[in-house]
Amino acid sequence: MGFNAKEYLESVSIDCVVFGFHNNQLKVLLLKMKYTQEWSLPGGFVKLSETVEDAATRILRERTSLTDIFLKQFRVFSDPERSKMNPALKDLIELGDQPDLDWFAKRFISVGLYALVDFTKVIAVPDNFSDYAGWKNLDEIGNLMLDHSLIVQKALNTLRLQISYQPIGYNLLPEKFTMPELQALYETLLGKTLDRRNFQRKILSFDILNKLPETKKGGAHKAPFLYEFNLENYKKALENGLTGGW
Amino acid sequence: MGFNAKEYLESVSIDCVVFGFHNNQLKVLLLKMKYTQEWSLPGGFVKLSETVEDAATRILRERTSLTDIFLKQFRVFSDPERSKMNPALKDLIELGDQPDLDWFAKRFISVGLYALVDFTKVIAVPDNFSDYAGWKNLDEIGNLMLDHSLIVQKALNTLRLQISYQPIGYNLLPEKFTMPELQALYETLLGKTLDRRNFQRKILSFDILNKLPETKKGGAHKAPFLYEFNLENYKKALENGLTGGW
DNA sequence: ACAAAAGTGTTGTAAATACACCCATGC
DNA sequence: GCATGGGTGTATTTACAACACTTTTGT
């Protein structure tokens, strides 16, 4: 667990915006910093043998206990002022309980990646700098550490753009889900309501869903059918892109 | 002109894919390396006081003599092997005519940015490592130095995606241009031919063009009207996105 | 006057939208 | 049995694609 600066690429950090979907709400995984009590994104550094994606996969495996995480870099954050006035770093330096302090005090640029995960499968684990890890609703995220609020905002923007030419939902929903759940995801990301019937027709026309014979019982009303993604066609759609927008 | 490694962010380089459009062909600005004679992308390093975009602007000002360049980061290239076996570096090290050689020999991740410029306004200038700078047609780019071929490919991909939800052409065409020229740009980027009449109707429906009273004379046939971008609406379209794809 | 390229118009088809009606379930 | 939400169907409107004809210019 010891941190050895020599194993890592200098000047480069990564920050991950982990999105989950639960109770028809989009959530982000956040860490609560030990000394400052600020909320921050899970992140870390890149080992000399890793790509940025490798590093993010490793870090998120530790934070979520998930292997096989869907992630995508979306932006580099390189404002020279972005890590100035970092209270957490100040505290660390004062406390002096970390080696390689000058390494941390240097300027970093950060590669932003977003990850889409199945909310129900995540076991959130804090890192060395935090004492709590958990989900927050998108609209309940207040001010985050450093420029992390900006990073979340840009990640969300990217996701919203991607939804119009790529299928989405795999990685974000459980294996089996209902049409209303999928629609709620789209509505959350797009920030607007969609017509139930037209949504169904359109999403089915993409041919990326398998309708299952089962229905989801236990709801207060008529039991909706369950669907799963047709992975083969889903991947094809990812490559070729979808036609129209929403 | 002297290079002082201490002024720069460690481990981070940038590579710029500069696109220009001329004679109905998409072109990329390339440098020919001094010793190896390999072709490479213009690039460089990030000063401690700069953002990635600042650095790219500075570097491209030197390479193109343009100020005010439209550019956008599109990807980080972080394969640990990407700068191994660099013949150029080997030669440099053998020649020993550069200070800070171990700095260069370290592993770098590179931020890829693409730039769109007006071909006719560029005065290409080589850098310290190259003895020639000039344009190459997209289909005439052979193997480039390091992973630069991959970088060009990814930049092009990004551009192709963006064209379907954003207006394009400003920064890439002269102030005044004809409809066939604009169409040729779209056809090049999309890699397919479009119907002249449908193209005109669609692009006009975006309301981002001003039709000028002048025509472009000198062609062998009927003189086409000149257009210019309506900057106000163009910017609106950039923010709001366009509706359909191509 | 002819060829080549640009301007303008029409029409059929497919997709997006806006609805209405029926069905299952829990209270 | 009634309120709620889900499943399915159908017109209308709009956008897209395919195509024809006329106009202008240089040779």
Structure description:
- 2 copies of one chain form a homodimer.
- Chain A is of the alpha+beta class and 246 residues long.
- The first copy, chain A, is built from 7 helices and 10 strands.
- Chain A is elongated, with a radius of gyration of 20 Å.
- In chain A, strands 1, 2, 3, 4, 5, 6 and 7 form a 7-stranded mixed beta sheet that branches.
- The interface between A and B is medium-sized, with 27 and 27 residues.
- The structure holds a DNA duplex (27 and 27 nucleotides).
List keywords for this structure.
homodimer; 246 residues; alpha+beta; Nucleoside Triphosphate Pyrophosphohydrolase; three-stranded antiparallel beta sheet; 10 strands; 30% helix; 28% strand
Write a compact overview of the structure shown.
By secondary structure, chain A is α+β, with helices and mostly antiparallel strands. The first copy, chain A, has two domains: 5-164, Nucleoside Triphosphate Pyrophosphohydrolase (Alpha-Beta Complex), CATH 3.90.79.10; 169-240, Arc Repressor Mutant, subunit A.
